[in-house]
Amino acid sequence: MTLLKSVDYGEIDFEVYSSQQFATVVFDRDEDDSTALITIIKDRKINQFEGHNSYNPSARRRSTCIYAKEEWDGGKIIKICTIQHKGETLVEIHSVDQAEFDYLFNH
Question: Are 22 and 69 in contact (CB under 8 A)?
């Protein structure tokens, strides 16, 4: 395994040294569907449901996101995603707001 690129988290205002990955989410969506099969792996359990596609970073297809949070009350949450879009595979980092957190993890 060879590291191809490292991310400078200072550019996104996220405290990487006091953070923890807490979930993996797969948004499985057929092209341009309004819903997605959402699979959440968290705390060694799998939760799967058909849901709206508004938190999928891919406008058209599938994505896989690793959710990480800063380890203090009120700490920021980000998601690091691989995204399938129009024949391209992209890697992006997105912020996560409370509405997204509640929808996915309190569903």
Answer: yes
